[in-house]
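Q: A reviewer asked whether we had any structural model of the full assembly, not just the individual parts. We don't, so I'm hoping you can provide one. Inputs are below.
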Amino acid sequence: MASRLLLKTLSKRHRISSTPFPFLSKSSGSRSASTLVLAEHEGGSIKAQSLSAVVAASSIGENNSVSMLLAGSGSSLLKAAESAATCHPSLSQVLVADSDKFEYPLAEPWSKLVQLVQQQGGYSHVIATSGSFGKNILPRAAALLDISPVTDVVEIIGSHQFVRPIYAGNALCTVRYTGASPCMLTVRSTSFPVPPVSGDLKSDRAPISQVDLSTLDEDSIGKSRYIKLLSEDTERPDLGSAHIVVTGGRALKSAENFKLIEKLAEKLGAAVGATRAAVDAGFVPNELQVGQTGKIVAPELYLAFGVSGAIQHLAGMKDSKVIVAVNKDADAPIFQVADYGLVGDLFEVIPDLLEKLPEKKMST
Amino acid sequence: MKIMVAVKRVVDYAVKIRVKPDKSGVETQNVKMSMNPFCEIALEEALRIKEAGLAKEVVAVSMGLANCVDTLRTSLAMGADRGIHVEAARELIPLTVAKILKKLVEVENPGLLILGKQAIDDDCNQTGQMIAGLLGWPQGTFASKVVLDKEKQVVTVDREVDGGLETLCLDLPAVITTDLRLNQPRYATLPNIMKAKSKPIKKYTPEELNVEIKSDLEVVQVTEPPKRKAGVILSSVDELIDKLRNEAHVI
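A: Here is a predicted structure for the entire assembly that you could use as a starting point for your response.
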């Protein structure tokens, strides 16, 4: 088997000598695929979440040549393209769309761009991570191409068969895409984790090429304008990719008390999460919400304090490896998914934990 | 200006769903159905815009089986002026819904289209983006604040994005999809429920609108997610720290 793969590798490398051959994946699919990954970049590097779309792409099939599409303008785009070129062994090409129109990730120009690049490249798959960027852009691009996309894929079974959660994760639906190319997906980043040592994995650099934008259809571009982004600056690890998440619910009672959660998170080197109740009550900003409509997390350790465990919250965290629940109410549904439960007052438990937990070296 | 709102009938959000034994789907017979929570928010927002004097009429649209009319009646009871029901024999996928909506937009000419950001049954989060793409209208998805400027014919939308809140300005006509924090939907009062019975609901079929119902997605099977193994209830913080360190090895 190994020698056959090697042969294929060699013959392909020979044929298209300018394109480094994509890394062979362990996947089941056998048809050759060509995948376009829509990626986000910030401050000159690829966002970590976008890399999970590359990981997903590499599990679609053997002989999958993966191209990454980056858009933006100026030097930060070029810097991001350089870092993209070596970001993952399966990447065989970086496409760059350099224009003021892509300065912000607006859906109108981006969807036209995807349509254009698809027409130029004839990809079999188009993938984005299902964050707010991918969810905003990919369905619009899919409609322009008259294709039904598949949202929030958690498992790739074959080149056209995928598993995705429905009903807040209370059922898993296996779907087969039967339409024309490309097959379009957004993938859940926690299901396609990026290996931690992604630093200098790739010895050869994928070629970077500019997208020819001369035929970009500019209808509807310019009908939306970016005004601003308000974001909370935080030193803590990103909620979506943290190894430990500490979450607080309504029982914290106030924003002031919520600082207890933050203190504990600091001690553990963890990210802070919240339930809808805590966000609606104004304890924390909305981007910390974990659940069906907030962020989906799957850390090594999830600590829930004063969280009842509504269906909608469980949808966002029940794939965590180890779940700990602290709640006064012994009948709270959260205890049904918790590996370790502690029935007690969080205002006593958290200070106790703060005192007894060892100082943690930051692992992120 | 006219606002069109799309509403979907789904299994009530509080119901613990059951997967059918033959793995063909989720049990929906004899299960409580309601309006999708995000659609309620979409409708509420449309009604508030109308009440602020910025829109003349709110039209609620639903498509699917005959019983979608119940959901439309709820919309009318909340305050929508009239309803449109596109009756289809089976569940429709987002692309088809978007195509039907496009036809209805051509008939009705609304200045604003508001939808929920996702239906809580299929969790797709696609229809609003797709209809915006098909119409060539700008989109403001995951909206938590909507400010309409009638004079300038623009709408400013605060969007809930991964890193915080993003503000966009869209030319009208536009498509907006609603996030949970946009507003608190009202309850329909009994007099309004009575009044809703006399409000008109226009019927169409997809054929009449020249939309072909086809699907490029096939459900292979629907299964239950793996169950987590039962956990243990501990008695003290010391025990918890011990378990996390020596049994789970996570700290």
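A: Points you may want to mention in the reply: The domain at 244-356 of chain A is CATH 3.40.50.1220 (Rossmann fold). Chain A touches chain B through 92 residues (CB under 8 Å).
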